[in-house]
Amino acid sequence: MKFWQRNWYYIGGILFVILAFVMGLWGCDHLSKIRIILIFSWMGMLMHQFEEYAFPGGFPLISNMAGL
Fold this sequence. Notes:
Elements: H1 2-30, H2 33-53, H3 59-67
C-alpha cells in the first residue's frame, strides 16, 4: 500500500503513455465520440497530475507554503 501511496502519479503517467498508444493506434476508430472525449479528458487529468507532482513537481511545497 505504501508503494501506491508514494508513487500513484508515476503509475498515472505510465497509464497515460499506454492510453496514448492505444488511442492512437486503435481507439479512435472503434469507440463512440463521447467515449473518445471521456478518455482524452481522463488522459489530460492523468498528465496534469503527473506534471504537478512528479515533473517538474513543486505542488506539495507550494500548497504547504500557501496554507501556512
